């Protein structure tokens, strides 16, 4: 029985993780969880899965929950999020919170020796070096949940990593993949949230529309697989059937395929190196699909992707600043306060202004994150 502490339990990945726990009660149990503000869902999860500890964002929500569930320890805020990660002994931290707020709990869980199943890519972008070094120091596995990174991880199973020539990350292209930059000027939040292949949380769906999601994934892959940026390529693949590929020195390419269903990589992260059946999953029928399409990535069209390569190559605190600028810009777009194209402008401006610290410690990372967020709110005011 694997004990799981789950951050972001009310979100898209969190909900699908709970599906897997529910389908396999003899294998998994939920020991602690965190959520943000969705109290209706939190109450339902507590009633069904009976975790011992729950963290929510606001104190008032925590007080109400404590009255409703007197036998569960209820905590709140950023400290509560860390307690949800490590306050109850568990085997795995599945981190599916959104944003760099996931950094401190991840580091705490690594220090506690827990296996980290990581969906929360912003943590690896904001502080990839610190997280990977800590995982090495504590000999803790970092198992990817993101479908692309799970695909790379699976393609690398049993391979000699020295023989890799390239990681090829596929991209569906997001909601606006067929629009020109001119056509993007007046797109709405509703249009941006209509992803053609995947059903995901709002922030990630917007990140897919700007292609920043792929940029974050490039940086994530750099850290997870210790691969130089020149050896990480992105390929437009609209069907989202090939989830990513690895090319080796002998020119062989290993790909992982499947119907788009995030429960598959989530479950694999929890059962690795084993596999178990997947309840209610759609099997891949290539004869029904017929054709798969691939296009070279256009860096002029998807400027956010080139920002991410630039930030990743420079390293230090620049990816932290880029990520923070993106998180706030996406939030402002969703609130209707800036147009879609302004997201890129804000990221570019914040990156231009940023004075990179090459080998930052945790405090310098947190300060970069805080200052960049403040600056973005300043510009928009
Ligand atoms: N969704 C996918 O298919 C997918 C695929 C690959 C990778 N990922 C990655 O997985 C992570 C989660 O994505 P998602 O789509 O599942 O996001 P989501 O649906 O927006 O869920 C985010 C979760 O985090 C909670 N949360 C938000 N802000 C918080 C804060 N400041 N403090 C504490 N908790 C907070 C939310 O709580 P409330 O809802 O209760 O407010 C919710 O439980 C992201 O890093 C994303 O890039 C997602």
Summarize the structure.
The chain is an alpha/beta fold and 381 residues long.
How would you describe this structure to a colleague?
- With 381 residues, this protein is an alpha/beta fold.
- It has 16 helices and twelve strands.
- The strands form two sheets. A seven-stranded parallel beta sheet has the order 4-3-2-1-5-6-7, with helices on both faces. It has a five-stranded mixed beta sheet with strand order 11-10-8-9-12, with helices on one face.
- Strand 1, helix 1 (12-23) and strand 2 (28-34) form a beta-alpha-beta unit.
- The mean pLDDT is 97.
- Bound molecules: NADP nicotinamide-adenine-dinucleotide phosphate.
- NADP nicotinamide-adenine-dinucleotide phosphate binds at residues 8-14, 34-38, 57, 81, 96-99, 101, 119-122, 146, 198, 200-204, 262.
